[in-house]
Design a protein that fits this description.
The protein is an alpha/beta fold and 447 residues long. It is built from twelve helices and 17 strands. The radius of gyration is 26 Å and the shape is elongated.
Length: 447
């Protein structure tokens, strides 16, 4: 079983030509006259080794209730219920029309994943339309030519993640069964290797009172409650100015690579000396690399006032690193296996949050409420108008804000990021929010 892609758009934008291109057969009638396609048509399709189902639909247009065109439009809208992915096609030569904008606004209310294709984009003839298409709020436009087969590689890249998700949902070897890469990091001698050995129940990695015993990043396979995990023990990371020996520099470099390739980083801190500058620097590095993070406070058995400790720790940490507010904090003891199960569950939850994808329609309904609650400020005497927002990717959740200006004040971006974190339960994960200026000359007067 695979995903179903519905091709939508106004009449004569090339939907059926694209349908035939994807199916490899002349299934759908194609003609310059608008409105040739009236009913939904479903067929197997592929781009190279990517296989899926594709649905051709009638063109959408304004029409009086009860007319044939109105019924055709109703059929097209119904197609969105039967599809897993919705793709709006616009005409690169004709440009973005009021009907395109009106239908895009309607589609943004759907919770289905959406793609935006600019067809008839041979050469540079559609460059203006591609730029203009950003204002539809359906993400990055994909330039194609269904008639000439151009842009299929970009369309493949956009559709491939949905095929993976579909395969994962229908296979025993889904994402939860694939090894989750967890890097155990921290400054020297906080108990990283001891924690690894305690988890494994054997002396798998060297430990001792001397700082810096671990040099190579050691990857070990492990199973926890049926979940495959790849645990990576890393060298302790000292302040850069204190790293003099070449071997230690190489070891720290290996630790940095482990962070870059990990999915979740467990930052181990010593309960007897928590939140030292190097602890904060390591946590900031994990955030800058965009990895999911969990804080493990080791040697918990040495803490007396436990509730007061946790409260003070959270306050200090969120003051130092507010960009990962709500990061999971798990007290542990690597020596006696205290809270190891809770640590793994926190890693699983952090990983899930890190993979969050927010539907475009839901995201823009939230944005509208945020803009009403707190109006965007003036920038250099100019009124800031925020148009739409779309999620570019996950791992970590990354969003693009479309506005009439290329810069949005930092405090307003923080307001939006905090709102994203609270509304969509993105606690403890890095959030990326970039701004893209809409250069379309009609953007100041949207539909």
């Amino acid at each position: 079983m695979t995903f179903t892609l519905a091709i939508l758009g106004r009449p004569n934008v090339g939907k059926s030509t694209l349908f035939n291109r994807l199916t490899g057969k002349q299934h759908a009638l194609v003609h310059d006259m608008p409105g040739v396609t009236r009913d939904r048509r479903l067929s197997d399709a592929h781009i190279a080794d990517l296989h899926f189902r594709v649905m051709d639909t009638a063109g959408i247009d304004r029409a009086e209730e009860g007319t044939l065109q109105a019924r055709m439009t109703a059929q097209t809208l119904k197609a969105t219920d039967d599809a897993d992915v919705i793709m709006l096609v616009v005409d690169g030569r004709a440009g973005i029309t009021p009907i395109d904008a009106e239908f895009a606004k309607l589609l943004r209310k759907s919770e289905k994943p959406m793609l935006l294709c600019v067809n008839k984009a041979e050469g540079k003839s559609a460059s203006g339309t591609i730029l203009d298409a950003h204002r539809l709020g359906l993400g990055e436009p994909i330039a194609i030519s269904a008639a000439h087969g151009e842009g299929m590689a970009d369309l493949y890249a956009a559709l491939a993640p949905f095929a993976k998700e579909s395969a994962d949902q229908n296979s025993e070897m889904n994402e939860e069964n694939k090894p989750l890469s967890i890097a155990i990091i921290g400054r020297p001698n906080v108990g990283k290797s001891t924690l690894i050995n305690t988890i494994l129940g054997e002396d798998r990695v060297l430990t001792g009172p001397e700082a810096g015993i671990t040099r190579d990043s050691i990857a070990v396979d492990y199973m926890f409650e049926g979940r495959a995990i790849k645990l990576v023990d890393t060298a302790g990371m000292r302040k850069k100015a204190n790293v003099a020996e070449k071997v230690e520099k190489m070891a720290v470099g290996d630790s940095l690579r482990a962070i870059q390739y990990a999915q979740v980083c467990v930052v181990v801190m010593d309960a007897e000396q928590p939140l030292e500058k190097q602890d904060n620097a390591i946590a900031a590095l994990v955030e800058s690399e965009g990895r999911a993070m969990v804080i493990a406070i080791n040697k918990w058995d040495t803490v007396k006032e436990k509730d007061a400790f946790i409260k003070a720790f959270r306050q200090r940490f969120e003051k130092v690193l507010p960009q990962v507010k709500g990061v999971p904090v798990v007290p542990i003891s690597g020596a006696n296996k205290y809270n190891i199960g809770k640590l793994f569950h926190a890693c699983f939850e952090a990983y899930n949050v890190w993979n969050t994808h927010v539907p475009t329609g839901e995201l823009n309904r939230w944005l509208e409420a945020m803009l009403e609650s707190h109006t965007p400020p003036l920038v250099s005497g100019r009124r800031l108008k925020i148009r739409y927002m779309t999620q570019k990717s996950a791992r970590p959740p990354s969003f693009i804000l479309f506005s009439n200006l290329s810069e949005v004040p930092e405090n307003y971006l923080r307001y939006l990021v905090n709102g994203l974190r609270e509304r969509f339960n993105l606690q403890g994960t890095p959030i990326r929010l970039s701004v893209k200026k809409n250069k379309n000359p009609y953007a100041e007067n949207p539909e």
